[in-house]
Write a structure and sequence with these properties.
single chain; alpha/beta; 25 helices; globular
């Protein structure tokens, strides 16, 4: 049961909304079910805009919101939905608890409101009411703020921490703010068109608000959202939108944020408009533009007929509605429109996961570059899979931005980088924005040196080679003298491996500092799970773009980029020099035949264990049951050994994950303790759980 808000005096509405009447729920069962019928308005032109916002960028956020309204006005849109918390930015985190954020957000709303003249516009912002902060959507009608709907269901799973900052609004309650604006669980009757809200997570809840709103004659449901990207998630969104419009017998307008808003989460945009169970229009995803508008005509007559049919078969009384906000508005007449929902070819193909990963990461890199005001990227290119993936993604990031924005558009977006405007081609632009560095030791091979060189040339990076063997020997000699001990591979294996990786860090950092570039860390999720990374070595960097994706998929993706790639963009046959290798850190002497999987376990097995152990929170004894069925070719004793190794290394290396550079959230889970997976730095290390695992018997042994 949700707690009620403290009682509040009903304040008179201010003069600027004097045309609005606030009343209790209408009592007529017909009106509650079918909606107001006094005006035979059968269709409206509606729109959803996706915005690339930045937390607390007050001028920029307002400018982009106003740009979206201007684009909608030009397109003839009367009803426009902007994203959740778009005025403040969704990623303000603990700054939501600062009174200044709420004040600046309200000032931003007052600045945006006049731009909604002769339109109806929904815009998201945080609102403080009775010592609590609420995630709200404001409805603007003809330049005036007529009401605030507060979010009822707060996102608290995965990367979301909304209950830390916001209070959930109690269902069925409504009040007035001290400014006299209605706030709460509201329905708006705007010129005889009933409008309601489901704010992002509201639409994902079992008892979503649309269920009760639909019984009060709802014509259009607005869903302002900040729905972060993860692989395959858009299919779920489509089902939510379509089912909402069908079940509620209404139009449904879904808007979303776009781009890398605050550093970790990437928003793919993808506006949607549906009506009476049919998709009417969908917007582009992963755009490099600041604003994208999607608009279409909503056939309200179809939606009302669907509600009428449902009302005839369901005599149930509509639930109580706290408040209906009524205001006059003249909707322009609209002719019918042929529906033509175009789905990009790549979304209908067989490589959607590969495409989504590429597009999301490239958009994330581009926005991080411009919002951090960095001069470019540095990648320590080892000749292996991870660093090659990072370098290729940077190339594609620039190539995709140029294809959509043009060279002038990129120059405008990256105006803080002086030499961008001088580049006349994508190759020249990549050469100016990406520095790659191969740093060899005595254990490096000609194979990896050649692979790094081939990849760097194919992507047009500015590439250098350094031999750091002398630096490694210098450190080892000095430490041997300090400790009066000769270091040997038999006794000091890890230390001798790590010093080689760490020696490479200062050179990469120095280049990044001299040029004002952003150093990319190249660790992947599989290796971060077990700490198979050298702190201050291959973990050096200010951003870790592939830390949210597993190694097995990265290897597959590199083969895909070599042979197929994205339609209309470069593919990289030179990746064969990387893909033909067996992954190795090249930190031990050549005669040790070191490989990553011999140090750890097969990557597909490692990823499966991580999925069950961390993603599904299963114990070691539970994990073996699943992994044994997934990998029947391996003996149970070997699987038990790998599971024990995983849990032990996971617990031991949490401190490393705490120190990793920020990473992109790309999957429905990741290992970033600041975004998704919290685990104690010090723990019992699964000691008891692994003892139980050791006594685990296979089904065959149990039968014996």
């Amino acid at each position: 049961m949700r707690a009620s808000l403290p009682p509040d005096d009903v304040l008179p509405l201010p003069e600027h909304v004097s045309s609005t009447v606030v009343e209790k729920a209408l009592r007529s069962p017909v009106e509650k079910t079918l909606g107001p019928m006094e005006k035979n308005l059968s269709r409206i032109r509606a729109g959803a805009a996706v915005l690339n916002q930045t937390p607390m960028d007050w001028r920029g956020n307002v400018s982009r919101a106003c740009k979206a309204i201007g684009m909608a006005r030009k397109a003839g849109v009367s009803l426009l939905c902007l994203p959740e918390l778009c005025l403040s930015g969704y990623g303000c985190e603990d700054m939501f608890l600062s009174g200044s954020v709420e004040r600046y957000a309200w000032q931003a709303l007052e600045e945006v409101a006049p731009h909604s003249a002769n339109m109806v516009v929904a815009v998201g912002l945080p609102v403080s009411y009775r010592s609590r902060v609420f995630n709200c959507a404001a409805l603007l009608v003809d330049g005036q703020v007529v009401g605030l709907v507060a979010k009822q269901f707060l996102a608290r799973a995965g990367i979301h921490y909304e209950p830390r900052w916001f209070a959930a609004w109690p269902k069925g309650e409504a009040h007035h703010t001290q400014k006299g604006v209605p706030i709460g669980d509201l329905v708006f009757d705007v010129g005889s068109v009933r409008i309601g809200f489901e704010i992002c997570e509201d639409a994902w809840a079992a008892q979503r608000p649309g269920q009760s709103l639909s019984q009060h004659g709802l014509d259009v449901l607005l869903s302002p959202s900040a729905s972060h990207f993860s692989l395959g998630k858009n299919d779920i969104r489509k089902r939510i939108v379509l089912e909402g419009s069908r079940a509620f017998g209404s139009g449904y307008i879904y808007s979303n944020l776009l781009g890398n808003e605050a550093g970790r989460a990437i928003y793919d945009g993808g506006a949607m408009l549906a009506c009476a169970g049919a998709m009417v229009a969908t917007g582009p995803r992963f755009s490099f533009e600041d604003v994208c508008l999607t608009d279409a005509v909503l056939e309200l007559g179809e939606a009302r007929m669907l509600r009428a049919q449902r009302a005839c078969s369901s005599p149930e009384e509509a639930p109580a509605l706290s408040m209906c906000v009524r205001t006059t508005f003249e909707w322009p007449s609209m002719p019918p429109e042929i529906r033509n929902v175009e789905v990009p070819a790549w979304e209908k193909g067989t490589c959607v996961k590969e495409e989504e990963f590429t597009r999301a990461t490239c958009l994330g890199l581009f926005d991080y570059l411009r919002k951090s005001r960095s001069g470019g990227f540095v990648v320590s290119l080892s000749g292996g899979a991870d660093s090659a993936a990072c370098a290729v993604l940077v190339r594609l990031c620039i190539e995709m931005a140029a294809a959509e924005l043009g060279m002038d558009g990129i120059a405008h977006k990256l105006a803080h980088i002086p030499n961008v405007r001088q580049a006349g081609s994508v190759a020249e632009l990549v050469n100016a924005l990406l520095i790659t560095l191969y740093q060899s030791t005595e254990h490096s091979s000609e194979t990896t040196r050649n692979a790094a060189s081939q990849v760097a040339e194919s992507i047009s990076a500015s590439h250098s080679e350094l031999d750091v063997s002398e630096l490694v020997r210098g450190y080892v000699t000095r430490i041997e003298q300090a400790l009066h001990t000769e270091l040997s591979w038999a006794e000091h294996d890890i230390a001798l491996q790590n010093i080689q990786a760490r020696v490479r860090g200062p050179s990469a950092w120095l280049i990044a500092n001299v040029r004002g570039f952003l150093l990319l860390s190249t660790s992947n999720r599989s290796e971060s799970a077990v700490g198979y990374a050298t702190m201050d070595g291959d973990t050096c960097g200010g951003l870790s773009p592939i830390a949210g994706i597993d190694k097995a998929f990265l290897q597959h993706w590199l083969r895909w980029m070599q042979s197929q790639g994205m339609d209309g963009y470069s593919k990289f046959p030179e990746l064969k020099y990387v893909n033909d290798q067996v992954p190795t850190a090249e930190l031990r002497p050549h005669d040790s035949a070191q490989t990553d999987e011999s140090d750890l376990m097969p990557y597909p097995v490692l990823d499966a264990i991580e999925r069950h152990a961390i993603g599904m929170r299963r114990s070691p004894a539970e994990v073996i049951e699943y992994v044994r069925n997934e990998f029947p070719a391996y003996e149970q004793d070997l699987l038990l050994l790998w599971i024990k190794k995983f849990f032990s290394l996971w617990a031991k290396n949490q401190w490393k994950r705490e120190r990793f550079a920020p990473s992109f959230h790309l999957d429905d889970r990741d290992l970033d303790p600041k975004a998704w997976c919290r685990f104690p730095i010090l723990s019992g290390g699964f000691e008891v759980e692994l003892e139980h695992l050791q006594s685990h018997k296979s089904p065959a042994q149990t039968e014996d």
